[in-house]
Amino acid sequence: MEYEFSRDPVKGGYHAKFSMEHEVFSSWLVEEVGNDRVQIDSLFQSVEKLRQHDSNELTFEGREYLLTLNQMDVTLQLNASCDGMGGVDSIEFEEDVSVNEDNFQAACGLDDFSMMLTSWQKFLSS
C-alpha cells in the first residue's frame, strides 16, 4: 500500500493520497478518522484484539464508510447509508458516466493497515 500525507499550509487541514487501488482510504482517513486520537487508539486496539485472536471480525460504521477488519484483512467500502439504501449498486449515474466499483471499496492486509495507521499517527504528531 502506497500513500503520502501532507498538510495544507493555507487552510491548515490534512491530506492523504493513496495509490489508485487504495484511493478510498484517502477520504476515509482524512474525513472519518482525522486527528481523533481516541478513534486512532481504538483502531490500534482492534488490530491487537485480532492479532491475539480475541475477535474474529470487527466492523466500524462511519458517516460515509464501513470498515471491516478480520485477522488477515481490512476492507473499506462506501457505507450503504450514504447512497440511500442498497449500497454502491443502487447509486444512479447518468448513462455516459463510467463507474468503477474499486473507487468505492479497497482492501489491504491487517499488517499494512496497522503500518499505515502508525504512519498517520506519526505524521499528526510531527
Give an overview of the whole structure.
- This protein is of the alpha+beta class and 126 residues long.
- It is 33% helix and 25% strand.
- It has 3 helices and 6 strands; from the N terminus they run ββααββββα.
- The protein has helices spanning 24-33, 37-51, 110-125; strands at residues 3-7, 14-18, 57-61, 65-70, 73-78, 105-109.
- The strands form 2 sheets. It has a 4-stranded antiparallel beta sheet. It has a two-stranded antiparallel ribbon with strand order 1-2.
- Helix 2 runs antiparallel to helix 3.
- Residues 84-102 have low confidence and may be disordered.
Summarize this structure as a short list of keywords or feature phrases.
globular; two-stranded antiparallel ribbon; alpha+beta; 3 helices; four-stranded antiparallel sheet; 126 residues
Q: Specify the biggest β-sheet.
A: 4 strands, antiparallel
Strand content: 25-35%
Supply Rg. 15 Å
Order of helices and strands, N to C?
Answer: EEHHEEEEH
Number of helices: 3
How many β-strand runs? 6
Summarize model confidence as the mean pLDDT: 85
| Distance linking N and C termini | 22 Å
SSE class: alpha+beta
- What number of domains? 1
Which parts are unreliable, with pLDDT below 50 for 5 consecutive residues or more?
84-102
Strand line-up in the sheet with most strands: 3-4-5-6
Looking at how many chains there are and whether they match, the oligomeric state comes to single chain
Percent of residues in helical segments?
A: 25-40%
Overall form: globular
